[in-house]
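EI: anyone free to look at a 313-residue chain?
SC: sure, send it
EI:
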Amino acid sequence: MRDGFGREVDYLRVSLTQRCDLNCLYCGAGCPEGEELTPEQIEILVRAFVKTGVSKVRLTGGEPLLRKDLAEIAARVRAIPGVKTLALTTNGVCLAEKAQALRQAGVDAVNVSLDSLDEEVYRRLTGRNALASVLRGIGAALDAGFQRVRVNAVLIRGENDTQAEKLVDFARDNPVDVRFIELMPFSEQGKNDALVIKAAELLERFPYLTPLPPKNPGESVAKYYTAPGFKGRVGFISPVSEKFCARCSRVRLLSTGEVRPCLAYDTAYDLKPFLNDENRLIEAIEKAIRSKPAGHAFGCDYGNIHAMNKIGG
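SC: here you go
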């Protein structure tokens, strides 16, 4: 269905947990476990979203690989008529052991959050010596035959901005999309504009990259580039410097059963009271979609924005 501004909403991001086994750029340590939706509840909710027009689903967290029932959840969602694509976003630490099972369960694509290819920088950012495990996970995902494997990186000036060259080289040497996402104001660092490295600045460092046309409309939030000899692509997602709210097609379902129409606002609608009444559940979902705001207010009033582990990546 369309929201109040005429945008088609067809993309649901499902946060399976607020738990996170790494200290990360966004949420820090000690993420609460909270009350998580069961596989049965997730299936009921996704079925209802599909009846409103959703066709693309992404499983996120926190860290979704912490869910022991992740493969069951993926299989349930993939079996719902109308779900055309099912993707997963993970920090990749445990991906090597689970990639094949997730592919067999019906996951089509995997995004791995990776902000450094240097062991010491990675350890400083995450608080854990797990870079080798993440790289094994990316290799396992490629071997498992996912349709797309992407590496998402957030650069912070003075923290890991020296990693850009290594990450671009990773796209040169491997059949993956390496995407640079601008730091958003979901932390004190993100609220400091001096630390935000914008896409235009990064592109100046790689003049040999040439733009590519999008393969499909679903890639419209990222602008992709390549160069001779590259096995993969380099992408830039610019929510701060090049606001793309006018073509945003997504909503987020939190692990607690609330739906958030927009990443940047606190507004949320609790769907759990309607789990046993599909008609009322669909009505509640439609209300949430219609309330989707015109756009975010990054750079103006940040407001009371939750940490990314609560929102869902």
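EI: Residues 131-144 form the longest helix (14 residues).
SC: 👍
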